Amino acid sequence: MHKRTSQTMRLSKFISLALAAMLASCAQPATDPTTIPVSGEMVAELTSPPIVPAPVGSRKATKLKVEMEIVEKEAEMADGVRYIYWTFGGSVPGKFIRTRIGDEVAFTLKNHPDNKLPHNIDLHAVTGPGGGATSSFVAPGHQITFSFKTLNPGLYVYHCATAPVGMHIANGMYGLILVEPEGGLPKVDREYYIMQGDFYTKGENGQPGLQPFDMAKAIDEDADYVVFNGRVGSLTGDNAITANVGETVRLFVGNGGPNLVSSFHVIGEIFDKVHIEGGSVINENVQTTLIPAGGAAIVEFKVEVPGTFILVDHSIFRAFNKGALGMLKVQGEENKTVYSGKQQEGIYHPEGGTIQKMPGEAPAARKASSVAERIEFGKQVYSKTCFACHQPDGQGIPSAFPPLANSDYLNADVKRAIKIVIEGKTGEIIVNGKKYNSVMTAQALTDEEIANVLTYVYHSWGNNKTVVTPKMVARVRSGH
Amino acid sequence: MTRTCLLLVSWLAMSAGPASGQSSTEMQKITGGTFVPLYGADSAEVHIDDFYLDVYPVTNAQFVDFVRSYPNWRRSQVIRLFADQNYLRTWADDTTLGAGMLPRAPVTYVSWFAAKAYCECLGKRLPTMDEWEYVAMADEKQKDARADSLFNQRIISGYETPDTHIQPVGSTYRNFWGIYDMHGLIWEWTSDFNSVLISGESRKDGDTDRNLFCAAGSVNATDLMNYAAFMRYALRGSIKARYSLRSLGFRCAKDVSE
């Protein structure tokens, strides 16, 4: 028995060694990618973000025709803010190009006649001077064709490289080109295309109207907007990307810059796999991955529980104040083992249950004796509790947090407003004609504080000057 | 100059009539001087002699008169070598402007050859790139306003704004020299537009790689903050003499000695 076991072990060891040797000998010799033959010809499917073209699968290397049109056009940067974008294919980022290793890409770059400027394209997937830029310089109303062979698998940025290059990138001229390995990337359930970019406008963030590019701010790297897919709200609300519980999601994430490096993070998810910098090394179990300007990463994760997962640049002021926010909405069955949701809520007394007062006389909270005082105290509450989401001037954050300034929703129903502060609010609401679908938590404020802060809000930013009293709050709290 | 025009005309078309109807734009004398352009061939400083420059870009109406007088420059008759298929493409026919085009708006969709011929037929010439840049660095009050960030920002915003070429000439500012519309309406041809940044084959000339691509564009430039000038030089580098662009027109210059 004993002997047999050791024999079996020895045998299995031998087999595994032999297997390993076989595998090694079966492994494909490293072929020179320049010699991969191409067969046939096909027109590349190009897609606008967040959609990606169909995977290459097992297709052979081919002659791939890519036709890209450069369009200079005015579009919305944020609610009420317009910008003249320069685009590859009419979107920011530009159209996604999907190739496989060994493809011979015949690239035609067309500069629309209505455009005012010359452009070109530097594809980081190209091996050659200027990444194609030297061969693709094209005046408005003209087109140019050049070709290249994809030699290295990975996810690559392309961008315009015409002087002044920073300005061309700052106006949106970037996108991603994927070179899949032989046989394609492993199959997943969902794939999306996301690219971060920073924008520099003459007016400050949120200032409405057509905003020209601000050269001085761009040079100072002082961005007014840091956004995914070219505008604030491109991936929130109805534009959110989606998945079902149990599915594996792959995000092709690029960073056009021109200046800022992205700390890409999905709140409530851990990346099972990250192709670091879009290359061949795979890291596992990553919380936040760094994406350089002019770089990319492929991140993959399985979604285990339903809910809304927020995509951010974890340089977090950019997410909060400059627009670097997206949403992944996952539908399906709850899994309480993975995530329970709120199970219990109670009072926490660090001193233990018996001692409830700090030594010495706690200063009694001063009660407001007039509406003016109520507003004054309310402002203090607002700046501690509310302003992070609703913003200093009550303007909110488009597609994420509704405005309190001039708010029809607020002014319509004071009881509802009180109730929301006490209990929080989840789900879809319409404020000033815009749909919001996010979460406000219940606020741990006293009746007095709630009365003060709401009175302050109602007396600010064009609202209807309702005075809220602690009595009104108490009534709502008790359910009357 | 006039001789060149007649030569060109008689060579290209037998039917060249007298240069009637072609109204010459008023000119202003520009006092020469020395300046440092964004890009130069050799030395940084460039000397400009006194010269005359058209107060306005050449207009649609003026160019209609020109092609009436010189049929060989009409859209249907022009030699392809001298103007690509885009030449005057928005016109209704050979001698009629397209619907909605203002006679007083600057002519665009003209090739360098056509612009050169136009000026020569008036006894003028195209300005050199350095002359043009010399005048273009002036704002309303100063000869050289390039250090003024607001001036730069205004020019860049103008370059970014679509469809500026459809406005009449004179609708932007009058500069120090009394010249209108140096920025804000159109790009303009210069006689030696392709002498600095060159596309295609000429790029290999000389030892320095004078590509304007990516950060390489900053290598030979004298003022890295002058984004507006970068944009102009980039445009010049992307075009060829037979090209006709929607936002590219011209004005004429003249030597003082004549």
Strands, helices and their partners?
The complex is a heterodimer of chains A (480) and B (258).
Chain A: H1 2-26, E1 41-43, E2 63-78, E3 81-88, E4 97-100, E5 104-111, E6 122-123, E7 142-149, E8 154-159, H2 165-170, E9 174-180, E10 190-199, E11 209-210, H3 215-220, E12 225-228, E13 241-244, E14 248-257, E15 262-267, E16 271-275, E17 282-286, E18 288-291, E19 295-302, E20 307-313, H4 317-321, E21 325-331, H5 371-390, H6 408-412, H7 414-423, E22 425-431, E23 434-440, H8 447-458, H9 470-477
Chain B: H1 2-12, E1 27-30, E2 33-35, E3 46-48, E4 51-54, H2 60-69, H3 112-120, H4 129-136, H5 149-160, E5 187-188, H6 227-238, E6 248-249, E7 253-255
Parallel strand pairs in B: 5-6
Antiparallel strand pairs in B: 1-4, 2-3, 4-7
Order of helices and strands of chain B: HEEEEHHHHEHEE
Query: Pairing-aware structural class of the strands and helices of chain B?
Result: alpha+beta
Give the overall shape of chain A, derived from the CA principal axes: elongated
How many E strands of chain A?
23
Unreliable parts of chain B:
7-20, 198-211
The CATH H-level homologous superfamily of the largest domain in chain A: Cupredoxins -  blue copper proteins
Number of discrete domains of chain A: 2
Using only CA atoms, what is the Rg of chain A? 28 Å
For the record, what is the CATH homologous superfamily label of chain B? Answer: paralog of FGE (formylglycine-generating enzyme)
Largest interface: A-B, 33 and 37 residues
Short summary of the structure?
The complex is a heterodimer of chains A (480) and B (258). Chain A has 9 helices and 23 strands. By secondary structure, chain A is an alpha/beta fold.
Commentary on this structure:
- The complex is a heterodimer of chains A (480) and B (258).
- In chain A, 20% of the residues lie in helices and 31% in strands.
- Chain A has helices at 2-26, 165-170, 215-220, 317-321, 371-390, 408-412, 414-423, 447-458, 470-477, and strands at 41-43, 63-78, 81-88, 97-100, 104-111, 122-123, 142-149, 154-159, 174-180, 190-199, 209-210, 225-228, 241-244, 248-257, 262-267, 271-275, 282-286, 288-291, 295-302, 307-313, 325-331, 425-431, 434-440.
- In chain A, strands 1, 2, 3, 5, 7 and 11 form a six-stranded mixed sheet that branches. Chain A has a six-stranded mixed sheet with strand order 12-10-14-19-16-17.
- The longest helix of chain A is centred in the first third of the chain and has 25 residues, at 2-26.
- Chain A is elongated, with a radius of gyration of 28 Å.
- The N and C termini of chain A lie far apart (80 Å).
- Chain B is an alpha+beta fold.
- Helix content of chain B is 24%, strand content 8%.
- Chain B has six helices and seven strands, in the order H-E-E-E-E-H-H-H-H-E-H-E-E.
- In chain B, strand 5 (187-188), helix 6 (227-238) and strand 6 form a beta-alpha-beta unit.
- The longest helix of chain B is centred in the middle third of the chain and has 12 residues, at 149-160.
- At the A-B interface, helix 3 of A face helix 5 and helix 6 of B.
